[in-house]
Every structure is written in structure tokens, then in C-alpha cells.
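Researcher: Sequence recovery benchmark, item below. Answer with residues only.
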């Protein structure tokens, strides 16, 4: 009987405490919670806001924990945000209300613009584990994502597809030069003249140049050596000197009509160059990717040439690789530059058609002429065929870079995501190869553009910034590059810096719109309006300029200009028409008939 009574007392106590907690929870009421923005605002790549909450007195004690559970609800689901746990350590004093201030953020994803930020409170009894929750409370409706209007080469259905990327070009004076590459091979560890069959191609190619009966303006010779040959510096210098004498001897023997002694011959002496080594390594099928990476780790290390050679010898496949490929590095590279009458543009264009039609034999046009021919052919397929021919003949930095730009623009026009990504991957490989031959601001910029097409803004910004540093002696390219960098500054949330960069950029419709957008986001609406107007004057068919003017008008409560410019914007872009209908920048006008008419 006593035992049953004890159980009854315990049960009653638990019930009483439970009822007491529930009663306290109901009596205390809802927490007072506010955020500093409604609607929320996208900044950089996330939505950030400050949350202030007051938890009623008596709810947070040693026996009770209180948790705030925020979430962003959009579409058919919700994104849980960081929970805010509150316990007795947050109390200013026993029985008092708790004041909480938190800086909150969550990543922005497509479709979030018309969602709801809401929150509920959860009280938990520490001893029993029982919980009590408040209803959800709405803190903010929707997200203003105006920063997403920044133009970095993207486009929406129904809009013109912008060209992206930076082509490399030849200087006009180089159009009068035809450069021909020859190789003169040597026995291993030797700089003795080598009349063997390995140099038959050298003799034959030099003979073909003599038969052109054109003057040789200049010859550049660079000695090379493989890693298993000693004394790199002295050996390569000696090979260059021997190759010079062999060129002169063969020119006289083959009947060159000019004065051999008057030809300018430059012997280049360079630090060990791993370019040919990397090419041979990539084309060597005797090792797998993991083994190949060991070689790259060595040659890219910040060590002396001699130390790298010793490390290479420790790689298991080194003996086989050196035996099968190193003979191809034991040579002097010779570039013969010949004067020739410059073909007219119509002649170049006609000859280029042979490459496009597949009837060219290989050397109808010089590399410079092929580069010029590509500018006559706006079609991406024609450009591709011309640059592929250039790559096959010359393998130059220009050929790799420009073919990569063609691939980027082809990817821009692909619908299937996997096809687009594969094409961008191919383009990035070509830009890397271009930079391995000769680092250029164009290839760096293009690598950044490729990252943009993947949505990797951080990597894109790094590459495009590197391009700017590389172009210190090319102010025209820097101005072009600053346009893209300024647009990325907008996405990164640095609006003031964006205006400074875009001040330097060419005054295209896109750059002027981005400049106006940067001023608008920095709340400098007067400057924004000027830039948007200049964008519109530059291209009256560019709907984004009028959309920008509508944004400024909305801030100034200028309804007449708002409706006028919004109507022009939506007429020019189906995307802007859809956006305007839900853009919270215009929320105060959604129900007005004039607004509804403007976006019809």
C-alpha cells in the first residue's frame, strides 16, 4: 500500500511539473523576433541578415533549454538554417528575459526569390526530455537578387548569345614573315655534326625553302639537350653553334641565291626548357597517369635543373622513358624567317577555303595568314577548322588559345549540360597548353571565362586577375579585362571597386550596364542612372539598360519613368519580362494597373 502510494506521488509530481511547464510556456507567449531586412537581400553568394530575439522571462532556466529553429521555405521544400541554442548561460539574471543577436547567412540557390524566412521556438525539459513548440513565425518574405543581373557572358532564352573569350592576334608587320621550324639532331652527349639519316628531314625541308627563291631575313637557333646528357649549358651552346654552320653550309650547297653571310642569325641561350619534355611525356603511352604525375611534380618543383634530373632518375619508368624518347630532345631547333610578298585579304580568304573544304595539303598559308583568315570567317565551325589546321602545322600558343576560344563559344550554344561541360573541359586543356608554350594574358583570361561558365566565380576571379597582371604592357587588353573583372566584383559584393574597374573598361553596352548596376547596388542612384542611359544609347536593343533605369525610377518613386523603361526592357528580353513580374525591387507596384500593363 505504501509502495503504491509512492508511485502515485511520483506520477502526480511528474504530471504536475509537466502541466506546470506547459502552463508556463503557454503563459509566457511567443518570443519577439525580428530581422533587419524584409525582403532579404542577396550579397556576394549568400543571403545575410541580422536576427534579434527576445525570449520571454521564465522560459530559460536550469531545468529548461530553449532553441530557435529558423528555416527558409521555398518551392516545395525548406532549407534548415543554423539553430540558435539558448541556456542558462545566456541569462543576465534569474527569471529575466533573454536577448539574442545573431548574424545569420545561408547560400543562395535558384528559385529562392519568392520564399519565406520563418522560425519557431522549441522548449525542452532537461530532465524529462519533453518538448513544446511555438507555431512558425514569418520573419521576411522573399529575396532581392539584383546582383544576379551582372553580365559576365551569360544569356537567357530569347536573348542574343554574346561572344566570350580573348583571341590572340599577330602584329601586322609579322604578316610579311613566314616562319619555318627545322630540327637538327645530334648523337647523345655530343655537339659533333651529324650527317646521318636522322637529319635527312632537315636537309629536305631546307631545300624546299631554297626553292621558294625568297630572301631569308633571319634565323633563330636554340640548342637543346635531354636530362641524361651532362653539362646542359655548354652542350646546348655548342649545338647551336654547330647547327649555325650546318645551316650555312647547306644553304650554299643547295644554291641559295642570297648572300648567306648577310643573314641575321641569332643563337638563343635559354635556361633548361621543359616544354618538349612535357610534350614527350604526355604522348608516351608506356606509363599511366599516376606515374606521369610523378614527373610533373619533379619538373614543376622550385629546384635546380641538376636536382630535378637526379629526382627523375628515381622514378621507376625513367629508364624506359629516357631510352624511347630522350633522343628526340638531343637537337638544335632552327627557325627560318623568310620575306615574302604579303597576300591580299581576298587571296588569303580564298586559300582558307581549302582548309574549310578539306582540300588543303598543309602549308598553303603561313601561321600568320591562317590567323588572319580566321578573322574573315565569323562562323565557329570555319574558325575551328582553320585553327585546327594551324595547330597541326605549328602547335603554337596562338593556335591552342584561339581554338580554345572557339570551343568556349561552341559550349555557350549547347543545350545539353554534359556536352557543354565536356566542351569547356576541352577548351581549358587548350588554354593550359597555350600557357605552357608561352604564358599570355589572353589564355589566363579565357581560363577565367571557362570557370565562369561553370559558375566557379572564385577561380574565375583569380585567373582574370592574373591576366591583368600579365598584361602590364598591353593597356588595351587590360581595359578589356577590367570589364570582366569589374562584373565579378559586383558578384563578389565589392560594388565600389567594381565602379573603379568599370570606369577603365571599354564603353560597351554591357560594361556600362554593369557599371550602372554597381552604382545602384552601392545606392548611388544618380551615377547609376547616368551609366544605364549610356548603356541604352550604346545599344538600344539591350533590354538590361532599360531595366536598370526602371530600378532607379522605382527607388525615386518616379512611376512614369518606371513603367516607360520597364515596358522597353520586357519587350527586348523574355527573361526580364518574367523577372519583372516577381522582382521584389518592384513589390510596391505589383498591384498597380500601370505596372501590370507595362510588363504585358
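Model:
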Amino acid at each position: 500500500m505504501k509502495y503504491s502510494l509512492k508511485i502515485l506521488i511520483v506520477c502526480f509530481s511528474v504530471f504536475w511539473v509537466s502541466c506546470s511547464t506547459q502552463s508556463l510556456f503557454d503563459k509566457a507567449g511567443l518570443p519577439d523576433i525580428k530581422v533587419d531586412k524584409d525582403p532579404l537581400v542577396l550579397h556576394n553568394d549568400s543571403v545575410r541578415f541580422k536576427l534579434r530575439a527576445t525570449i520571454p522571462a521564465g522560459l530559460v532556466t536550469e531545468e529548461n533549454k530553449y532553441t530557435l529553429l529558423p528555416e527558409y521555405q521555398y518551392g516545395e521544400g525548406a532549407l534548415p538554417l543554423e539553430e540558435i541554442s539558448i541556456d542558462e548561460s545566456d541569462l543576465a539574471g534569474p527569471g529575466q528575459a533573454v536577448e539574442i543577436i545573431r548574424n545569420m547567412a545561408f547560400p543562395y540557390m535558384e528559385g529562392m526569390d519568392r520564399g519565406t524566412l520563418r522560425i519557431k521556438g522549441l522548449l525542452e525539459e532537461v530532465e524529462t526530455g519533453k518538448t513544446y513548440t511555438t507555431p512558425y513565425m514569418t520573419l521576411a518574405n522573399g529575396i532581392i537578387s539584383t546582383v544576379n543581373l551582372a553580365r559576365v557572358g551569360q544569356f537567357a532564352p530569347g536573348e542574343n548569345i554574346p561572344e566570350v573569350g580573348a583571341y590572340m592576334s599577330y602584329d601586322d608587320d609579322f604578316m610579311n614573315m613566314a616562319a619555318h621550324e627545322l630540327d637538327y639532331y645530334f648523337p647523345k652527349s655530343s655537339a659533333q655534326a651529324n650527317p646521318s639519316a636522322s637529319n635527312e628531314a632537315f636537309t629536305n625541308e631546307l631545300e624546299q625553302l631554297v626553292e621558294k627563291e625568297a630572301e631569308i631575313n633571319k634565323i633563330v637557333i636554340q640548342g637543346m639537350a635531354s636530362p641524361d646528357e651532362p653539362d646542359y649549358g655548354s652542350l646546348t651552346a655548342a649545338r647551336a653553334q654547330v647547327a649555325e654552320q650546318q645551316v650555312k653550309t647547306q644553304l650554299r650547297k643547295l644554291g641559295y641565291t642570297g648572300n648567306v653571310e648577310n643573314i641575321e642569325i641569332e643563337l638563343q641561350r635559354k635556361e633548361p626548357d621543359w616544354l618538349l619534355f612535357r610534350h614527350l611525356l604526355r604522348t608516351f603511352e608506356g606509363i599511366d597517369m599516376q606515374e606521369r604525375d610523378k614527373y610533373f611534380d619533379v619538373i614543376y618543383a622550385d629546384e635546380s635543373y641538376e636536382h630535378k634530373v637526379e629526382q627523375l632518375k628515381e622514378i621507376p619508368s625513367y629508364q624506359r622513358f629516357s631510352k624511347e624518347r630522350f633522343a628526340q630532345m638531343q637537337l638544335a631547333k632552327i627557325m627560318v624567317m623568310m620575306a615574302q610578298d604579303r597576300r591580299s585579304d581576298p587571296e588569303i580568304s580564298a586559300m582558307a577555303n581549302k582548309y574549310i573544304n578539306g582540300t588543303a595539303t598543309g602549308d598553303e598559308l603561313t601561321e600568320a595568314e591562317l590567323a588572319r583568315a580566321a578573322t574573315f570567317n565569323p562562323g565557329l565551325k570555319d574558325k575551328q577548322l582553320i585553327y585546327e589546321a594551324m595547330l597541326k602545322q605549328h602547335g603554337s600558343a596562338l593556335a591552342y588559345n584561339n581554338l580554345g576560344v572557339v570551343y568556349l563559344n561552341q559550349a555557350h550554344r549547347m543545350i545539353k549540360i554534359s556536352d557543354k561541360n565536356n566542351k569547356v573541359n576541352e577548351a581549358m586543356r587548350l588554354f593550359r597548353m597555350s600557357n605552357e608554350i608561352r604564358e599570355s594574358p589572353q589564355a589566363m583570361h579565357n581560363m577565367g571565362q571557362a570557370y565562369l561558365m561553370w559558375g566557379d566565380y572564385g577561380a574565375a576571379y583569380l585567373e582574370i586577375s592574373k591576366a591583368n597582371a600579365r598584361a602590364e604592357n598591353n593597356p588595351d587588353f587590360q581595359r578589356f579585362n577590367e570589364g570582366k573583372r569589374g562584373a565579378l566584383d559586383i558578384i563578389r559584393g565589392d560594388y565600389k571597386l567594381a565602379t573603379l574597374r568599370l570606369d577603365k573598361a571599354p564603353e560597351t553596352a554591357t560594361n556600362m550596364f554593369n557599371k550602372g548596376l554597381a552604382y545602384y547596388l552601392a545606392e548611388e542612384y544618380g551615377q547609376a542612372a547616368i551609366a544605364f542611359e549610356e548603356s541604352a544609347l550604346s545599344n538600344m536593343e539591350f533590354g538590361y539598360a532599360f531595366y536598370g533605369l526602371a530600378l532607379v525610377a522605382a527607388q525615386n518613386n518616379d512611376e512614369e519613368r518606371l513603367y516607360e523603361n520597364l515596358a522597353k526592357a520586357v519587350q527586348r528580353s523574355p527573361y526580364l519580362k518574367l523577372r519583372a513580374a516577381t522582382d521584389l525591387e518592384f513589390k510596391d507596384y505589383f498591384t498597380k494597373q500601370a505596372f501590370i500593363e507595362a510588363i504585358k
